């Protein structure tokens, strides 16, 4: 099979599209022929050597995709050849074929196209656990999302709006501000404007996937409110003083999606909850940008340079 690989860490130029051995199908796996593979920030960190990466020679990036089952392991009873399935936490996904443990398989409802399902998978399940496992906001709560027009941000914003929250956000450009307002946000601040001084101690929850904004998030969070820290798209976060948190009875919560997708039932339950928002037309997405898997290096560069609004998909 063909795969997007690398043997050393570094810039996008280390990526090579080459022929490698097909994956081995064990008793409890299914072999998925991928139609689309989702590209995520974590793939950049892995290529740079700063994030957990499956041991493999050569390295193969990628953890989420959608496709059709072409082979089933001897112990698999719930799935058959021809089933359309997706996965969000399976390594070695930047390839034409991926061996997916049966517990990691997620069935795709008919109403979702391959492109839509591939675009919402990992970022949608992330938004779901941030909103429903960590923050647990009540209708009427005021919440703020940094990077509201990013992949997770867009989905989280629509999900919380549907949950009855008043959603505020921060974006870098007027075009991204417009995108978030059109998706239902109440107010969207421009990152470089001087807006924050009027919103100290204001939000029940601040969702921070940017990282270096943590001190600002602490100021914006209301007494007894919480900061949900889940990523560092803007660089490593500065240290947070626990005393500063305690003085306003503020809490810092964190989480990694993989600690919330621990078995087949937890994946299916969360996926069903996410797809429910789509079925009720409470979440829409802009059209994804598609690169051939062979041009994965250009896709990585586009993501790193913030050139693309919305999801980037790789097509084998
Ligand atoms: N904890 C988990 O389980 C988990 C799971 C998935 C993703 N994540 C993390 O969540 C974050 C967002 O992921 P994503 O897939 O949504 O990425 P994305 O689509 O690329 O969005 C990144 C967002 O970060 C904002 N941003 C980037 N640099 C910034 C800076 N210097 N200052 C302020 N904002 C900045 C961008 O804002 P603009 O668009 O306005 O420029 C963009 O909206 C990443 O850190 C990712 O690693 C965590």
Model description:
By secondary structure, the chain is an alpha/beta fold. The chain has two domains: 137 residues, Medium-chain alcohol dehydrogenases, catalytic domain (Quinone Oxidoreductase, Chain A, domain 1, Alpha-Beta Complex), CATH 3.90.180; 136 residues, 3-Layer(aba) Sandwich (Rossmann fold). The chain is 28% helix and 26% strand. The strands form three sheets. Strands 3, 5, 6, 7, 8, 15 and 16 form a seven-stranded mixed sheet that branches. Strands 11-10-9-12-13-14 form a six-stranded parallel sheet. Strand 9, helix 3 and strand 10 form a beta-alpha-beta unit. Helix 2 packs across helix 3 and helix 2 crosses helix 7. The longest helix is centred in the middle third of the chain and has 22 residues. Bound molecules: NADP nicotinamide-adenine-dinucleotide phosphate. The site of NADP nicotinamide-adenine-dinucleotide phosphate has 27 residues, from helix 1, helix 2 and helix 3. One of its GO terms (molecular function) is NADPH binding. Pfam families: ADH_N, ADH_zinc_N. InterPro entries: ADH-like_C, ADH-like_N, ER, GroES-like_sf, NAD(P)-bd_dom_sf, QOR-like. Keywords: NADP, Oxidoreductase.
């Amino acid at each position: 099979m063909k795969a997007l690989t690398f043997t050393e860490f570094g810039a996008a130029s280390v990526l090579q599209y080459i022929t490698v051995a097909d994956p081995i199908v064990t008793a409890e796996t299914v072999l998925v022929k991928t139609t689309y593979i989702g590209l995520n920030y974590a793939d950049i960190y892995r290529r740079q050597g700063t994030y957990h990466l499956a041991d493999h020679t050569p390295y193969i990036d990628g953890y989420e995709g959608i496709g059709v089952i072409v082979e089933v392991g001897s112990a698999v009873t719930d799935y058959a050849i021809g089933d359309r399935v997706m996965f969000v936490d399976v390594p070695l996904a930047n390839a034409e074929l991926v061996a997916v443990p049966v517990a990691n398989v997620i069935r795709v409802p008919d109403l979702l196209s391959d492109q839509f399902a591939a675009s919402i998978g990992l970022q949608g399940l992330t938004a779901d656990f941030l909103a429903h496992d960590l923050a647990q906001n009540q209708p009427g709560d005021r919440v703020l999302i940094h990077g509201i027009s990013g992949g997770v941000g867009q989905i989280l914003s629509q999900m919380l709006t549907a949950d009855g929250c008043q959603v505020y956000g921060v974006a870098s450009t007027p075009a991204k501000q417009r995108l978030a307002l059109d998706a239902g946000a109440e107010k969207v601040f421009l990152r470089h404007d001087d807006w924050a001084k009027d919103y100290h101690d204001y939000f029940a929850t601040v969702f921070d996937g940017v990282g270096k904004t943590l001190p600002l998030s602490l100021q914006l969070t209301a007494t007894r409110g919480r900061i949900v820290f889940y990523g560092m798209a803007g660089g490593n976060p500065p240290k947070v003083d626990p005393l500063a948190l305690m003085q306003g009875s503020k809490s810092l919560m964190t989480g990694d999606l993989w600690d919330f997708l621990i078995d087949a039932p937890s994946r299916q339950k969360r996926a069903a909850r996410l797809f429910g928002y789509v079925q009720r037309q409470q979440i829409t997405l802009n059209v994804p940008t598609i690169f051939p898997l062979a041009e994965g290096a250009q896709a990585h560069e586009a993501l790193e340079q913030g050139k693309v609004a919305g999801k980037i998909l790789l097509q084998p």
